[in-house]
């Protein structure tokens, strides 16, 4: 049962503080050769790798709302910490440069830190200040300590990413807008709603898509493929994703109840660990590239796509289904994982 109409939901989004960073709407590409080869559902790819800023990706769409709120509050420096090949960090560095906000990135000294390539190279080109964190230390705590030092200096910092609940909720809000784009694009093609939307997501991206479907009363099932599991400090379990759905709806002026069991977020495709290539992601990436000319990286969006292919192979999706895969970007990482990318 619908809680809100599409026009009302668009109006609620339009009322929020926002900066314009992304090329929107992003394309929705059909995948006829892949669909025929798999003899499974019809597949479209929502190209959020084409958001434009710094090689694109889902974080650019999210930063429109996150940084819109930050600018509205007079924030003058943003702090983000993640893996050394973080897509979030790359797009944040570019957005900060465009908006004239100082950006401090606190990458973990993981196995790829010393190799200044891919996302890490791009982040540095945008002038971000790099303050590395030892591999065994808490990035969340390091960000909090940095923010405290900056406040003592009279600055107005904002912590983003892991541990920043308000920013993560605004990131989810952005994907309410992405879901509306998908609905509009399929309608323009004369196509019905998708039966499933698959997305590589640690939390916010899936939460926004799921909140939108629930608010609109759509039966579309949102399936998240998580690139990390509970071994990682940033992991969000289904209960946290359910809360983000509710909080995103609340920001837009609506009450929504989402239970943890309503959230499908699989950690079955992580492989060895977060930020590490997996054989299934390499195989999936190769198949997509060779059938549709679309690239996904082997450690993030490739893992999500491997989850979609795995569900098709297992018979969880059939020829009667219509699936949208949300491509969340991450393409600069291909150059840091060149050997893994070619192994597929």
Automatic annotation (TrEMBL):
Residue stretches making up the Tryptophan synthase beta chain-like PALP domain: 20-329
GO molecular function: D-cysteine desulfhydrase activity
Residues that bear N6-(pyridoxal phosphate)lysine: 59
Active site (record annotation): 86 (nucleophile)
UniProt superkingdom: Bacteria
Gene3D superfamilies attached to this UniProt entry: 3.40.50.1100
Named cofactor requirement(s): pyridoxal 5'-phosphate
Pfam family, one: PALP
InterPro entries per the UniProt record, alphabetical: ACCD_DCysDesulf, TrpB-like_PALP, TrpB-like_PALP_sf
Assigned keywords, A-Z: Lyase, Pyridoxal phosphate
Family, similarity comment: Belongs to the ACC deaminase/D-cysteine desulfhydrase family.
Name of this protein: D-cysteine desulfhydrase/L-cysteate sulfo-lyase
Originating organism: Sinorhizobium americanum
């Amino acid at each position: 049962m619908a809680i809100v109409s599409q026009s009302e939901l668009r109006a609620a989004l339009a009322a929020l503080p926002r900066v314009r960073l992304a090329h929107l709407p992003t394309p929705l590409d059909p995948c006829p050769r892949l669909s025929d080869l798999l003899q499974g559902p019809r597949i479209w790819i929502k190209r959020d790798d084409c958001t434009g800023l710094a090689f694109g990706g889902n974080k650019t769409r999210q930063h429109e709302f996150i940084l819109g709120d930050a600018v509205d509050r007079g924030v003058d420096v943003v702090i983000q910490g993640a893996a050394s090949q973080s897509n979030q960090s790359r797009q944040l560095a570019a957005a900060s440069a465009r908006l004239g906000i100082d950006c401090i990135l606190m990458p973990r000294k993981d196995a790829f830190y010393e190799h200044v390539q891919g996302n890490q190279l791009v982040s540095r080109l945008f002038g971000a200040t790099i303050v590395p964190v030892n591999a065994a230390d808490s990035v969340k705590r390091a960000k909090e300590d940095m923010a405290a030092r900056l406040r003592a200096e009279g600055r107005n910092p904002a912590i983003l990413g892991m541990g920043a609940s308000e920013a993560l909720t605004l990131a989810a809000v952005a994907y309410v807008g992405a879901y509306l784009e998908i609905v509009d694009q399929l309608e323009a093609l004369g196509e019905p709603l998708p039966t499933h939307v698959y997305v590589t997501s640690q939390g916010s991206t899936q939460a926004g898509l799921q909140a939108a479907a629930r608010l609109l009363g759509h039966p579309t099932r949102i399936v998240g493929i998580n690139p990390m599991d509970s071994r990682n400090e940033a992991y969000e379990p289904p209960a946290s994703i359910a809360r983000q759905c509710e909080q995103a709806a609340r920001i837009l002026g609506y009450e929504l109840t989402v239970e943890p069991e309503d959230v499908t977020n699989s950690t079955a495709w992580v492989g060895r660990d977060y930020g590490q290539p997996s054989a299934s992601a390499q195989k999936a990436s190769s198949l997509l590239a060779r059938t549709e000319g679309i690239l996904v990286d082997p450690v993030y969006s490739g893992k999500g796509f491997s989850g979609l292919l795995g569900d098709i192979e297992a018979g969880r999706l059939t020829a009667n289904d219509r699936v949208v895969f949300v491509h969340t970007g991450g393409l600069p990482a291909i150059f840091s994982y060149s050997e893994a990318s070619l192994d597929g």
